[in-house]
Design brief:
The structure is a single chain. By secondary structure, the protein is α+β, with helices and mostly antiparallel strands. Helices cover 30% and strands 18% of the residues. It has a four-stranded antiparallel beta sheet with strand order 4-7-5-6. It has a four-stranded antiparallel beta sheet with strand order 8-9-10-11. It has a three-stranded parallel beta sheet with strand order 1-3-2, with helices on one face. The chain binds flavin-adenine dinucleotide (FAD). The site of flavin-adenine dinucleotide has 34 residues, from strand 2, helix 2, helix 6, helix 7 and strand 7.
Length: 328
């Protein structure tokens, strides 16, 4: 299918980009690698008249252990020797996203700002017309939860968010009004349409910032998908652990993606395990609690009950993989 017509802008600086965003506010999209936006445009999913490419802005590049620029490509994150050594969960997560050719183009910023997905939304115009359209594009009700009264239940599937959440990352935003930085955990919305609770329409993501303490965590990431490659997750789960020599948990962080309309940091449910002695029984219990705290809807390929069960399974497997204290 052909792309719809739009005005294409390619600024060379952040100032130029934020002025363009402010000028066309309400009828503009940003494009980074284009691997999510352009397929959506081809399906006529909420296309705008103006598209601003971020490809010419050098200030959005760069990878260090404290800061990753929004235009860092997934392949650069996957292959960065620095991240592989110091924050390996980021390289591991990037390596599981879509396929090698898409990772050459896809960026961190685009992955974080990925549009939510749904069985009723990511379809051709003809298909969507056959079900009278959905709330997220041209329709009046959510077809996943028809009684939802104006709330969209599309699923957020960006994978980097889960790993960045357990690392305690912050997101740096910029608009013509200035810059600000906020915790990633406060960034996402529960609604599948108004996805970004704290991003204004004229803001762009400049970078993510990672605290130094993140390097003290031992982390891992697991992905559930029908195929091993070129497939969005039906569940992504990141786990971070700090455990002392006596096997006592000092820090435990768990985040999921592809379950609800935003990635979820399960910080409150995990708090009860801090100070507890690691064991196989405790790993089982942590998995149970994580499963109980997770919600999922019937709008991506795999069954919600199965995805919730897999939250427990992945949690247990990651704990065992990270520390032998959980295997006994
Ligand atoms: C076949 C296929 C399989 C895929 N599989 C996966 C998968 O397994 N896991 C996964 O996570 N993703 C998957 N994707 C989605 C996508 O390839 C990746 O998420 C990629 O990282 C998106 O980055 P991008 O730069 O291409 O984003 P783009 O398409 O350029 O942009 C995506 C969204 O982010 C916004 N945006 C981009 N940059 C910024 C910024 N700096 N500030 C503010 N907004 C911004 C855009 O306006 C747009 O709304 C898949 C895509 C396809 C086509």
């Amino acid at each position: 299918m052909e792309l719809p017509a739009f005005h294409y802008h390619r600024p060379n600086s952040l100032d130029e980009a934020s002025a363009l965003l402010a000028r066309h506010q309400g009828d503009v999209d940003l494009v980074a690698g284009g691997t999510d936006l352009l397929p959506n445009y081809k399906n006529r999913l909420n296309a705008r008249s103006h598209v601003i490419s971020l490809g010419g802005i050098s200030a959005l590049q760069g990878i260090s252990t404290r800061r990753i620029g929004a235009m860092a490509r997934l392949v650069e994150i996957e292959r960065s020797p620095l991240l592989q050594t110091r924050l390996p969960v980021l390289a591991e997560t990037a390596s599981k996203i879509s396929s090698p050719p898409l990772r050459q183009h896809g960026t961190l910023g685009g992955n974080l700002m990925l549009d939510t997905r749904c069985y009723y939304f990511n379809q051709s115009p003809l298909w969507r017309q056959s079900v009278d359209f959905c709330l997220k594009a041209e329709g009046t009700k959510c077809l996943v939860v028809p009684s939802s009264k104006g709330r969209c239940f599309a699923t957020y599937s960006g994978e980097m968010a889960a790993s960045l959440l357990i690392l305690g990352a912050k997101v740096e935003l910029l608009s013509a009004a200035g810059a600000r930085t906020l915790p990633l955990a406060e960034f996402f919305d529960e609604d599948g349409i108004v996805r970004f609770r704290d991003r204004k329409e004229d803001e762009l993501v400049v970078a993510v910032h990672i605290p130094e303490e993140a390097e003290q965590l031992s982390c891992g990431y697991r992905k559930l998908a029908i195929r091993d490659s070129i497939d969005f997750p039906s569940l992504g789960l990141a786990l971070g652990l700090r455990i002392n020599k006596r096997g006592v948990i000092e820090d435990l962080r768990l985040a999921t993606t592809a379950m609800a309309s935003r990635p979820e940091l399960l910080d409150e449910p995990m708090a009860e395990f801090i100070g507890q002695q690691a064991s196989a029984q405790l790993a089982f219990r942590i998995g149970e609690v994580a499963q109980k705290a997770s919600v999922a809807y019937r709008n991506v390929p795999l069954d919600p009950k199965y995805r919730r069960k897999m939250v427990a399974v992945f949690t247990r497997r990651l704990l065992e993989a990270i520390s032998p204290a959980f295997a006994n």
